[in-house]
Amino acid sequence: MHQDTETLTQQECLSARPSAVFTALTDPILQIKWTGAKATGKAQAGRRFTIFDEHISGRYLDLQPERHILEEWQTAQWPANAPPSIVEITLEEAGEETQVIVVQSMIPPGHAKSIRQEWTDRYWNPLRAFLARQNGT
Hints:
Blueprint: E1 6-14, H1 18-26, H2 28-35, E2 40-41, E3 48-51, E4 56-64, E5 68-75, E6 85-94, E7 97-107, H3 112-135
Antiparallel strand pairs: 1-7, 2-3, 3-4, 4-5, 5-6, 6-7
Helix pairs in contact: 1-2
């Protein structure tokens, strides 16, 4: 790992089963529904994806349905020469909910704070609202 990069860790609890969370995070048709923005890709290791009108782009490295997502990930604002970060998402069933653990490493220096806020604003808040609508709550 590059010494001048940053790592962030987050934990979120979502009111849905791991299968629903996994699909919402990897299926571009569902991503469009909960983000309101263009998304592309296919949930398959080695395949590229974009989300939020190409603001975020990456490549799936490993997918274990309902349990684990490993991907390269970067935003359009990162320095041109910055390599993608590595995002590891672990899904753990907690009754009717899913505990989501995200570890994102190799974030360019000075970007971790804004990336943490992007996860909250662009992922967790709209995803919670979408899953609540799906559950009829």
